[in-house]
Specification:
Blueprint: H1 2-16, H2 27-37, E1 44-55, E2 64-68, H3 76-82, E3 87-91, E4 101-104, E5 112-115, H4 117-120, E6 123-130
Amino acid sequence: MRATLELLLKHLTACQGETKAVVWANSAHAGDARPRFDARAVTIGFSTYAGSVTAAPGWGEPEERQRVVPARGDSYEYLFHAEDVPRFDLPLKPHPQAPAVTAASSRTHTHYQTSRLIERYDALYHFDVTRELDSI
């Protein structure tokens, strides 16, 4: 994804001059963009404790309503849930003493990674319970 974004920005800059882009990506892709784009990138993370989403189980498959498995007890999402605040934003600033805590990167317990939020995001929005989109 990073390579595609770099090529797109290079092309648009050549055609139109200085260019900016807004990219919606999953946590791993957004965090991976930070080292390449450094101060030019603003990364905003989103997290949830539980709920439901509309997603396809695999590439090319039709979307379906899927349950978000409640977050593991050693995750940021669990810590946020324990605060009993339905939703909040968390501005993040670099700090060398930040703890590493497990962060969810998918809907299942098999897709967790160790992460320092302040190294991945400039801000984070937490929604304790999320709900899938309804078809119009």
